[in-house]
Amino acid sequence: ATGINGHYNLPWLVIVLCTLFFTCAVIFIRKKIFRTMAGAWLIWFMGSVGFVFPFIMDLIYRSTHQQMECIDHIMTVTYREPAIHGWISNNWDTIGYLNVVLVTVLVIFLIIPMAIKWQSNPEE
To answer: Quick one: 90 exposed, middle or buried, by C-beta within 10 A (0-12, 13-18, 19+)?
Structure first.
Protein backbone atom coordinates (compact mmCIF):
# COMPACT_ATOMS: atom_id res chain seq x y z
CA ALA A 1 0.00 0.00 0.00
CA THR A 2 1.12 3.52 -0.64
CA GLY A 3 0.40 6.89 0.87
CA ILE A 4 -0.12 7.97 4.45
CA ASN A 5 -2.89 5.40 4.96
CA GLY A 6 -0.66 2.49 3.97
CA HIS A 7 -0.22 -0.60 6.08
CA TYR A 8 2.90 0.50 7.95
CA ASN A 9 3.35 4.15 6.99
CA LEU A 10 1.52 6.01 9.77
CA PRO A 11 3.27 4.30 12.73
CA TRP A 12 6.66 4.81 11.09
CA LEU A 13 5.84 8.45 10.35
CA VAL A 14 4.93 9.13 13.99
CA ILE A 15 8.03 7.34 15.30
CA VAL A 16 10.36 9.22 12.92
CA LEU A 17 8.73 12.59 13.64
CA CYS A 18 8.87 12.03 17.41
CA THR A 19 12.56 11.17 17.12
CA LEU A 20 13.13 14.29 15.01
CA PHE A 21 11.30 16.49 17.53
CA PHE A 22 13.32 15.08 20.44
CA THR A 23 16.64 15.41 18.60
CA CYS A 24 16.00 19.01 17.56
CA ALA A 25 14.81 19.97 21.05
CA VAL A 26 17.91 18.47 22.68
CA ILE A 27 20.28 20.12 20.19
CA PHE A 28 18.69 23.57 20.50
CA ILE A 29 18.43 23.41 24.30
CA ARG A 30 22.01 22.19 24.80
CA LYS A 31 23.52 24.74 22.41
CA LYS A 32 21.36 27.48 23.96
CA ILE A 33 20.29 28.78 20.55
CA PHE A 34 16.89 29.65 19.15
CA ARG A 35 15.02 29.48 22.44
CA THR A 36 11.64 29.84 20.75
CA MET A 37 12.35 27.02 18.29
CA ALA A 38 13.68 24.80 21.08
CA GLY A 39 10.45 25.34 23.00
CA ALA A 40 8.39 24.52 19.92
CA TRP A 41 10.35 21.30 19.30
CA LEU A 42 9.91 20.34 22.97
CA ILE A 43 6.15 20.92 22.82
CA TRP A 44 5.85 18.86 19.62
CA PHE A 45 7.83 16.06 21.28
CA MET A 46 5.60 16.14 24.37
CA GLY A 47 2.53 15.88 22.17
CA SER A 48 3.75 12.98 20.09
CA VAL A 49 5.64 10.81 22.59
CA GLY A 50 2.49 9.14 23.89
CA PHE A 51 1.86 7.49 20.52
CA VAL A 52 5.28 5.86 20.07
CA PHE A 53 4.94 2.78 22.33
CA PRO A 54 1.48 1.74 21.06
CA PHE A 55 2.65 2.20 17.46
CA ILE A 56 5.72 0.03 18.14
CA MET A 57 3.43 -2.67 19.55
CA ASP A 58 1.19 -2.30 16.49
CA LEU A 59 4.16 -2.73 14.14
CA ILE A 60 5.26 -5.87 15.99
CA TYR A 61 1.70 -7.21 15.92
CA ARG A 62 1.26 -6.58 12.19
CA SER A 63 4.62 -8.03 11.22
CA THR A 64 4.19 -11.32 13.11
CA HIS A 65 0.86 -12.61 11.80
CA GLN A 66 0.35 -16.18 10.61
CA GLN A 67 0.89 -16.75 6.89
CA MET A 68 -0.93 -19.33 4.80
CA GLU A 69 -0.54 -20.57 1.22
CA CYS A 70 -2.78 -22.56 -1.04
CA ILE A 71 -0.90 -25.75 -1.94
CA ASP A 72 -2.77 -28.26 -4.11
CA HIS A 73 -6.06 -26.48 -3.31
CA ILE A 74 -5.49 -26.87 0.45
CA MET A 75 -4.75 -23.90 2.68
CA THR A 76 -1.51 -24.71 4.50
CA VAL A 77 0.14 -22.70 7.27
CA THR A 78 3.60 -21.67 6.10
CA TYR A 79 4.51 -19.49 9.08
CA ARG A 80 2.99 -19.71 12.56
CA GLU A 81 2.66 -16.56 14.58
CA PRO A 82 5.10 -16.24 17.50
CA ALA A 83 3.90 -15.94 21.09
CA ILE A 84 4.35 -12.16 21.12
CA HIS A 85 1.56 -11.84 18.52
CA GLY A 86 -0.95 -13.59 20.77
CA TRP A 87 0.24 -11.68 23.83
CA ILE A 88 -0.22 -8.30 22.12
CA SER A 89 -3.63 -9.39 20.81
CA ASN A 90 -4.83 -10.38 24.29
CA ASN A 91 -3.24 -7.54 26.28
CA TRP A 92 -4.05 -4.24 24.57
CA ASP A 93 -5.39 -2.91 27.88
CA THR A 94 -2.11 -3.73 29.62
CA ILE A 95 -0.19 -2.05 26.80
CA GLY A 96 -2.35 1.05 27.26
CA TYR A 97 -1.72 1.13 31.01
CA LEU A 98 1.99 0.56 30.47
CA ASN A 99 2.02 3.43 27.98
CA VAL A 100 0.53 5.77 30.60
CA VAL A 101 3.22 4.70 33.10
CA LEU A 102 6.01 5.12 30.51
CA VAL A 103 4.81 8.58 29.49
CA THR A 104 4.52 9.62 33.15
CA VAL A 105 8.07 8.43 33.88
CA LEU A 106 9.30 10.15 30.70
CA VAL A 107 7.65 13.42 31.72
CA ILE A 108 9.06 13.28 35.25
CA PHE A 109 12.63 12.26 34.40
CA LEU A 110 13.18 13.71 30.91
CA ILE A 111 10.72 16.36 29.81
CA ILE A 112 10.55 18.35 33.07
CA PRO A 113 14.37 18.56 33.39
CA MET A 114 14.58 19.56 29.71
CA ALA A 115 11.93 22.25 30.25
CA ILE A 116 13.79 23.59 33.29
CA LYS A 117 17.00 23.75 31.28
CA TRP A 118 15.10 25.41 28.43
CA GLN A 119 13.71 28.07 30.80
CA SER A 120 17.21 28.83 32.06
CA ASN A 121 18.41 29.63 28.53
CA PRO A 122 18.77 33.35 27.81
CA GLU A 123 16.16 35.18 25.77
CA GLU A 124 16.84 35.68 22.07
So the answer is: exposed
